Amino acid sequence: MYLSSRMITSVSPSTNSSFLLTEFSGMEQQYPWFSIPFSSIYAMVLLGNCMVLHVIWTEPSLHQPMFYFLSMLALTDLCMGLSTVYTVLGILWGIIREINLDSCITQSYFIHGLSFVESSVLLAMAFDRYIAICNPLHYSSILTNSRISKIGLTIIGRSFFFIIPPIIYLKFFNYCHFHILSHSFCLHQDLLRLACSDIRFNSYYTLMLVICILLLDAILILFSYILILKSVLAVASREERHKLFQTCISHVCAVLVFYIPIISLTMVHRFGKHLSPVAHVLIGNIYILFPPLMNPIIYSVKTQQIHTRMLRLFSLKRY
Q1: What percent of the chain stands above pLDDT 90?
Q2: Which of 152, 148, 76, 85 is nearest to 113 (CA)?
Q3: pLDDT at 2 over 60
Q4: Distances in Å between the alpha carbon of 203 and those of 164, 191, 206, 208, 263?
Q5: What is the pLDDT of the chain when averaged over all its residues?
Q6: How far apart are CA 284 and CA 262, in angstroms?
Q7: How buried is residue 255: exposed, middle or buried, by Cβ count under 10 Å (0-12/13-18/19+)?
Q8: 159 and which of 2, 117, 144, 234 could share a cystine (Cβ 3.0–4.6 Å)?
């Protein structure tokens, strides 16, 4: 990696003041060209999720549990895009190259917290599909507006409260390695890599969080679909089976879009030290941008109610 002497000095291990953000190292001359697709992706993330929220908010027929959870997902994806847009595009546009420790810690808090929120919302959506298919007669009585509000508050508390201790610890670490991050945004594991303090608490605590939130959510989602599959296969009519499966396709796609990048990023940080920096940057950007970009597309195409109202919205704007 090529770094000027000024840049090396500014990120030297003698200070905790700032960290160097990296995008595609060695390709700095191409950043103006890279900014075009990245700016387009962020515009699509913001526009797509805002449109989903607008359609659900303004259409009374979509004021149902399934779409309330979808609005939570869209809001989470929107916040994820907003939490990283300044640093990612700031590097490509030449606005910033460094980030101070407090801002870095704050950004990592929201990135990881929003990842936990998305995992929890996907679990809530799996529970919604399970009730709708396996216990349809009691669907409206189980998923009341009050209960959905409580689920939403529980998701926020679960996701943002338990990550506070390791995030606070980052403030008091001594960062004696060169302050060069692996991505154009801040991640907890990236800061741990630069720390020379005792990081065992953070390592074990965050591993416990990953197991108790991400892994547990994935297991429960899988278990819910086993029960759904068992219930659907008990239906005699092929047409009814197809209809029931269709109601789950969007959610299954959203689960895959979320878990595949996050597992890939975890594996790269854990076992991919021999990989090129470009691979780390690419996987990191996929983790940050792929779910917020794809979820509005998936639900706009695969969910008939959203698809119909999106077309109607575009028709109104056209005329």
Answers
A1: 57
A2: 76
A3: no
A4: 14, 11, 6, 9, 17
A5: 87
A6: 9
A7: buried
A8: 117
- Looking at residue 317, its pLDDT comes to 57
Q: Using one digit for the tens of pLDDT, what is the confidence trace for 134-169? A: 888 899 899 999 999 999 999 999 999 999 999 999
Report the distance separating Cα 32 and Cα 216, nearest Å: 42
Give the whole-angstrom CA distance, residue 236 versus residue 159.
Answer: 41
> Are 17 and 101 a contacting pair, CB within 8 Å?
yes
Whether 113 has a pLDDT exceeding 90, the answer reads: yes
Structural domains present in the chain? 18-310 (1.20.1070.10)
Let me know: does 92 contact 133? Beta carbons within 8 Å. no
Q: How many angstroms separate the CA atoms of 225 and 217, rounded?
A: 12
Residue 293: its H or E element: helix 277-302
> d(Cα 1, Cα 261) in Å, to the nearest integer?
25
Query: Taking the model in full, what pTM does it have?
Result: 0.90
Cβ proximity of 163 and 209 under 8 Å: yes
198 and 159 in contact (C-beta within 8 Å)? no
- Candidates 194, 172, 269, 168; CA nearest to 21 is 194
pLDDT per residue over 71-84, tens digit each? 999 999 999 999 99
Q: How far apart are CA 89 and CA 229, in angstroms?
A: 43
Integer CA distances (angstroms), 205 to 74, 176, 202, 220, in order: 29, 22, 5, 21
- Residue 46 to residue 206: CA distance in whole angstroms: 30
The CA-CA-CA angle for residues 189, 194, 197, to 5°, reads 95
Query: What 3-state DSSP class applies to 196?
Result: coil
**pLDDT over threshold 60, residue 190:** yes
